[in-house]
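Today's session is about reading a structure prediction critically. Students often jump straight to the picture, but the first step is always the sequence itself: look for stretches that repeat, for charged clusters, for runs of hydrophobic residues. Only then move on to the predicted structure, which in these notes is written as discrete structure tokens rather than atom positions. Here is the chain we will use throughout the hour.
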Amino acid sequence: MRAQLALDGWSANASELGTAPSVVAFSVTDTGIGIGADEQQRIFEAFAQGDGTSARAYGGTGLGLSISRELVGLLGGEITVASTLGEGSTFTVYLPLGKRATVARGESLAVAAAPAQERSTAIVAESGWRDRDPSRGAKAAEFNGLDDRPFEGKKVLVVDDDFRNVFALTALLERGHADVIGVESGEDALATLERDPDIDLVLMDIMMPGMDGYDTIRAIRAIDKFKSLAILAVTGKVVGGERRRCLDAGANDYVPKPVDTAELLAVVGPWLVSSAQAMG
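Below is the predicted structure for this chain, in token form.
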């Protein structure tokens, strides 16, 4: 990896870089399989990989570069790639120095680039979260000190068909030093639990195509070893009686969207502790 001031290398479309007092470039070079010229722009698309075949030899979701490009764009910069097949690749992030970038999109990505003291109370706006239950404020104070490793040693499964929500929730919980696994369907959630049964908590979206959150929760509860597993429904479906429907399906608690991070932490924290005790 190399970090240095740069005079060029970015495209003419990166207007903030062209007008910045100075630019810093962070370059990471690998000795991997390389990326063909016809694939070098496609890999920045969501769920795209250099090897897109069903029998590819390398794993991953194909989201890393897409998310990286969004983050870099929010900071007013640009990410580029130079690669040779069979030799390796160099990815370079160019960022402007000397002025603050303007955030023009949802905050769920901007949160990751904010100072730590701001991130701890930042609202994940792209999911539409806001404070809905002031009575949970006292609990939030207990678990909002994310730099104190409150979730260290705990494992959380996040189930949501929108990868942006998975990314935002994962980033938040990992700041509390939880071990987070993200999946995008009920079927994947069941398969993950079978492979990794020591999960302490499941955050379950309700409105998912195919196997929705209700059916997934019921399927989990039908497995004896998961009858005491903590499952929290986190959903934007806030019609009358929704809390009762989630609890009847087998959820332990219900967090409606919109909700802010403090409320989510207030609910997640106690269940992580009680789940670890019950499963242990």
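Discussion point for the tutorial: The longest strand covers residues 88-97.
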